[in-house]
Amino acid sequence: MAKTTERVQTGVRIEKRLLKVLKGLAEHLDISLGDLLEGISLHSLENKPPFSAEMLKKIKKLKEVYDLELGASDSHKLQESEQEK
Predict the structure, then answer these.
(1) 16, 46, 79 from 84: Cα distances, Å
(2) What's the confidence (pLDDT) of residue 84?
(3) In this structure, is residue 37 part of a structural domain?
(4) Which of 18, 26, 31, 56 could form a disulfide with 35 if both were Cys (CB 3.0 to 4.6 A apart)?
(5) Residue 83 located in a structural domain
(6) Crossing angle for the helix pair 53-65 and 16-29, nearest 10 degrees?
(7) DSSP 3-state assignment of 9?
(8) Angstrom distances, CA of residue 68 to CA of 11, 42, 43
(9) What does the longest C-alpha to C-alpha distance in the chain come to?
(10) Domain assignment of residue 32, given as a range
């Protein structure tokens, strides 16, 4: 049975190419970007991998399309370009 929830609009800043990959993935899965982010977050908070091996292959292709070379080791180490400041 589905659980009832209350959703809110929020403005977040996110790396441009990462957002493109996430939007592409959401489109591929035919879900909203918000639903994708909720799913990734809920899985991560329980230390469960959110994606199958097959889906990771699709994500790798999307990362190539959008020139996203960032990985988990880059987390919390990114600096904004002078244009963004």
Answers:
(1) 11, 33, 10
(2) 65
(3) yes
(4) 31
(5) no
(6) 130
(7) coil
(8) 22, 24, 22
(9) 48
(10) 16-70
